Amino acid sequence: MSFESSHIPPFTPSLKAFTKDEAMRYPSIPFAVYQIIQTISLASQGLLETINKGTASRVMAAEVTYNASGDKQQQLDTVAHIGFVEALASTEQVGGIISEEAVDLVELDSKMGNYIVALDPLDGTANLSVNAPFGTIFSIYQRISPLGNPIQTIDALQTGHKQIAAGYILYSTATMLVYGTKYGVHSFTYEPTVEAFLLTNPAIQFPKEGPSYAVNDGYFNQFPKAIQQYISHAREQGLGSRYSGALVADFHRHLLQGGIYLYPPTQQKPAGKLRLMFECNALAFIAEQAGGLASDGTQAVLCLEPGTLHQCIPFYIGSANMVKQLLHFMA
Ligand code: FBP
Question: In the chain, N or C: fewer CB atoms in 10 Å?
Fold first, then answer.
């Protein structure tokens, strides 16, 4: 019995061909940045192979320690972290990496590497052991300290506006990679028959409105009044509630269909749960390049001055009109 249905439209560019062409069209983005995106895309395939090894991933998903933010760290978090670090080290372009799974800056080609990569190797880790979608999130910054000197934490603690590129990989029914630069946001789907990411949606525009919101409703009573009022209003407007347990999966739905994701402060997480440097900055950059918005409730995420590597913020991201309406409720 054959379910063969994959028909690749002719001339569908691969990520490699598309980024090569984009680098030629927009020389202000150094080709090294695209090499880093390419490297992350290849490493994600290695991670997916490990995860698709069924039993191994179930076992590895079960073993738990705790990371720098005090969150559960499954062995797969560490495996993913190490895999991406090793891959990025091979580029000789990256001076250092900051990662949700590492307390401090990880120095690579410290003196000659011109870029810093911020990484959430596995977003939605809790979804792994129940076979639900999860992701990898990345940001690319140019270092501040001069080449030739050891890279420093200040090179990593830059505002989101300073990102040169950002992206994510969504591991789900298909594996998709989405990246953004100041020249636009594009998505690619992994095509196993040619072992490459192929262009799916070029120049994505974030719909101004959408049919759904994503929030952990179980914390409703802990949310600030204004957030409760916004959620009640969204329900009255007939918006659907869709919460996957993986920020990347919810964000991807909203990027394509419109919608809003909220992770407000709660009693357990009075500063919010999501990490500014590893999750929020990257998705805020993509959202804004595509015409969406991202806020911590007081200001645009991309304007936030980071204080510490692992700081968390309240996070509201999605369709521009929906985020504006939420901020109106919060004002
Ligand atoms: P991890 O990066 O540790 O997975 O945390 C982020 C996250 O899993 C998001 O992907 C998701 O939206 C949220 O936390 C779920 O948190 P909660 O279970 O508290 O709703």
Answer: N
Question: Active site includes 92?
Answer: no
Nearest Cα to 134, choosing from 179, 76, 87, 210?
76
Closest to 284 in 3D by CA, of 196, 185, 211 = 185
Ligand 1 centroid–CA 76 distance in Å is 15
Q: Is the dihedral of CA 69, 75, 76, 78 positive or negative?
A: positive
Q: Which of 324, 325, 330 is nearest to 234 (CA)?
A: 325
Confirm whether 155 is a catalytic residue: no
Contact 292, 331 (CB under 8 A): no
* 320 CA → ligand 1 middle, Å: 23
Q: Which atom of ligand 1 is nearest to the CA of 125?
A: 4
pLDDT for 205: 98
- Whole-prediction pTM: 0.95
CB of 22 closer than 6 angstroms to any ligand 1 atom: no
pLDDT given at position 57: 54
User: 211 in ligand 1 pocket by Cβ < 6 Å?
Assistant: no
For the chain, list the domains and their CATH numbers: 15-201 (3.30.540.10), 212-330 (3.40.190.80)
- Set 22, 109, 123, 288: catalytic member: 123
Q: 128-132, long-range: CB within 8 Å, 24+ apart, which pairs?
A: 128/51, 128/57, 128/61, 128/74, 128/76, 129/58, 129/61, 129/62, 129/74, 132/244, 132/245, 132/246
Q: Which residues of the chain have pLDDT under 50?
A: none
The catalytic position among 101, 155, 250, 296 is 101
Type of residue numbered 103: V
